[in-house]
Amino acid sequence: MGKTGTHQRQKVYFKVIESDLRTYHAMKRQIELHEKEIDDMAAPSATDIRESVYIKSKNMSFKGGFNTSVVVGNTVRNTNDPTADKAHEIMFFRNSIGYKEMVRHVEAIDYVLNLYMERMTRSDREAHLKMKLVEEKYFKNLLTDAGIYTQLNISRRTFYRWKEDVLSQIAEQLGFIF
Asked: How far is CA 41 from CA 20, 45, 91, in A?
């Protein structure tokens, strides 16, 4: 593929990443709520400590407790048990491509932001300004690009170079190839 195709692919990747950055906090909250829901389900019941859902084996999952003959999964499901139904629903959601992609994108953004945070602790001015750029451009989204680079006291060209640098680092973490 030529330079034009590569540039077009890069633009598409950057649009996806920019969208992810704008919804980053909402995606993190959704993942945290989902994980909390899983933790709540995994906690032993106050009324029946014997009942639990065992970790998925290679071929199937078993509803635990004294009755291990009930298979939770595609073959047999006990629809009279709301806990098992909810566990099945959560497993289905957790294994969905959309959820896995959301987690993967949040982890890539976290990785890059953590790199900048580490550099900021070493008093790296550029890292600090790049974090401010991300915060203003994607998290707050109140200023125009010109407003952001004026506030950060950097040139227009530096603003776009740094923005591309941040997006490229996230793209690299996601395995996007241009």
From this structure: 29, 9, 11
pLDDT value at position 66? Answer: 46
Question: Rounded to an integer, what distance in angstroms lies between the CA atom of residue 16 and that of residue 44?
Answer: 40
pLDDT, tens digit, for every residue of 42-101? 665 544 444 444 444 444 444 444 444 444 445 445 567 777 777 777 777 777 888 889
Which long-range contacts does 84-91 make (Cβ < 8 Å, 24+ apart)? 84/53, 86/41, 87/41, 87/53, 90/34, 90/37, 90/38, 90/41, 91/56, 91/61
For CA atoms 151, 157, 162, 164, give the dihedral sign. Answer: positive
Q: Which amino acid is at 14?
A: F
Q: Which of 96, 94, 72, 75 is nearest to 85 (CA)?
A: 72
How sure is the predictor about 34, in pLDDT bands with cuts at 50, 70 and 90?
Answer: confident
Q: How many CA atoms, within 13 angstroms, populate the side-chain half-sphere of residue 92?
A: 9
**The pair of three-digit structure tokens given for residue 47, joined into one six-digit string:** 């009324």
Residue showing tokens 């073959």: 75
Structure tokens at 129: 């300004």
The structural domains of the chain, with segments of one domain joined by +, span 3-30+97-174, 46-94
- What residues have CB less than 8 Å from 140, skipping those under 6 apart? none
